[in-house]
């Protein structure tokens, strides 16, 4: 197991971090353009914070290519 702390974040934090709307985020997940959620309970999901941060970094990089 890696010696890295992995943090799971809930929906509201993901939305604040990314600026996406809830529906826009789920559309991006369906298109495989955003990290998918991790089930953490019967009716609860979360996202891996480092994956969301990587998505943000890719978006920043993409602006330089446009």
What distinguishing features does this structure have?
3 helices; 52% helix; AlpA; DNA-binding protein; three-stranded antiparallel beta sheet; alpha+beta; DNA binding; 66 residues; Prophage_regulatory_activator
Q: Care to give the gist of this entry?
A:
With 66 residues, this protein is an alpha+beta fold. The protein has one domain. GO terms for molecular function: DNA binding.
Structure in words:
The protein is α+β, with helices and mostly antiparallel strands and 66 residues long. It has one domain. The protein contains three helices and three strands, in the order βααββα. It has a three-stranded antiparallel beta sheet with strand order 1-3-2. Strand 2 (38-39) and strand 3 (45-48) form a beta hairpin. The protein is globular and about 40 Å long.
Provide mean pLDDT, rounded.
Answer: 94
User: Rounded to an integer, what's the Rg over CA atoms?
Assistant: 13 Å
Total individual domains: 1
The share of residues in extended strands comes to 5-15%
């Amino acid at each position: 197991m890696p010696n890295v702390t992995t943090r799971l974040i809930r929906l509201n934090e993901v939305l604040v971090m990314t600026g996406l709307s809830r529906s826009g985020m789920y559309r991006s997940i369906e298109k495989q353009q955003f990290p998918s959620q991790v089930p953490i309970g019967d009716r609860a999901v979360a996202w891996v914070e480092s994956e969301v941060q990587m998505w943000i970094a890719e978006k920043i990089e993409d602006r330089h290519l446009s």
